[in-house]
Amino acid sequence: MDMGFTNVYNPEGSIFKWANENRPLVQNQTTVYKVHPYNAHWGRLLERKYHIEK
Question: Taking the complete model, does pTM exceed 0.85, yes or no?
């Protein structure tokens, strides 16, 4: 919003909950099916099937 965007949302429960609920994930107008869990701690919040593998 500080950058002038007016249609800004922060999903409750984070992108991990969004992915775990099998909701659509889009990056650069392309549907994606995996999320980077950042690290092992945060990765526990994301179902394994949605992890981007290293």
Answer: no
